[in-house]
Each structure stands twice: as structure tokens, then as C-alpha cells.
Specification:
- The chain is mainly beta.
- The protein has a single domain (22-158), classed as Sandwich (Immunoglobulin-like), CATH 2.60.40.10.
- Helices cover 9% and strands 37% of the residues.
- The protein has one helix spanning 2-15, and strands at residues 30-35, 39-41, 46-55, 61-62, 69-74, 100-103, 108-109, 114-122, 130-140, 152-158.
- The termini are far apart.
């Protein structure tokens, strides 16, 4: 029994990626590389978020093809993605779709390069003071599969009047 458990643990550890999670799609992988500052935002203001991921897979990420990678919208659990945002009223009209914030700013992101994902949020006039979280993760646009489940978030804070 002990040998079987040790073999299973060893097999799982060997299959894990650099961040401790296995790549979810053959040829695709990524590492989080940074993001823009969190926002302090006022009524009606529109401000940008940017996040950067390194393409650590073997496939290029290319816009408008089967290899397009999107920054998918995720729920608060950071595992349920390609979901409708609880902050949909913050969409200033520039989000890629109802389930994705953005795709890469670059037309192609080759292996080893950084991909930039940029989108804007606009504080609704009805927003209460507090912090609003925007969760995401990278997914293949065509299949909606996450490429390296790791989760990402940025916050927009609304100050009390």
C-alpha cells in the first residue's frame, strides 16, 4: 500500500508545472508576470487594467485564429471561468465579450514572450463605496479551456463620499 501511494504521489508531482499546477491544454502554458496598479475610482470614471502573462508553452497565441488566448472572466472562486461577471455594470463597452475581458494586445505572442491583456472598467453611478474585484484566468478562445489554471484578480476601490 505504501509503495502504491508513493508511486501515485511521485507521478502527480512529476506532472505538475512550474507554478505547481499542470498545464491544462497540450502546447499551451503561461506564467503570471505582473499587472497594473489597483484602482481608486470615482463616479463615472473609466480606467484601465492591464495584466501580463508569459507564454511558457510551445504554441503561439495568435488573435483571430484557433490559437487565440483570452483573459476569461472568473467567479470569486477563481476556478469557475468563462462566466458572466458579477461586475457586468462596470463594463465600459470595451470588454471582449460577456465572458472575457480581453485578448492579447499583440497580434501574436510567441513562446517565451509576454502577452498583454488590457481592458477598462467604468464605475457605475450607482456603485456603493467598497472594493470590487475582477477575477480572471487565461483560456483558449475557441474551446474555453483554461491553459494554466492559476487565477488572477485586480481591484477597483470606490471611496465613501
Amino acid at each position: 500500500m505504501r509503495l502504491a501511494v508513493t508511486t501515485i504521489i511521485t507521478t502527480v508531482l512529476l506532472s505538475l508545472g512550474s507554478a505547481g499546477l499542470a498545464s491544462a491544454v497540450e502546447g499551451y502554458d503561461s506564467d503570471y508576470a505582473g499587472e497594473s496598479a489597483f484602482l481608486n475610482i470615482g463616479p463615472g470614471a473609466s480606467q484601465p487594467f492591464q495584466v501580463f502573462f508569459k507564454n511558457t508553452g510551445t504554441a503561439a497565441w495568435q488573435k483571430n485564429t484557433a490559437s487565440q488566448v483570452n483573459l476569461a472572466i472568473c467567479r470569486a472562486d477563481k476556478t469557475t471561468c468563462n462566466a458572466f461577471s458579477p461586475n457586468v455594470d462596470w463594463n465600459d463597452g470595451t470588454w471582449l465579450s460577456s465572458i472575457a475581458y480581453a485578448t492579447t494586445s499583440q497580434d501574436i505572442v510567441n513562446p517565451g514572450e509576454l502577452g498583454t491583456f488590457a481592458y477598462h472598467v467604468k464605475m457605475p453611478l450607482t456603485a456603493q463605496s467598497g472594493t470590487y474585484r475582477f477575477n480572471g484566468d487565461l483560456a483558449i478562445a475557441r474551446t474555453l479551456q483554461k491553459i494554466h489554471p492559476q487565477g488572477y484578480y485586480q481591484d477597483a476601490t470606490v471611496a465613501a463620499p
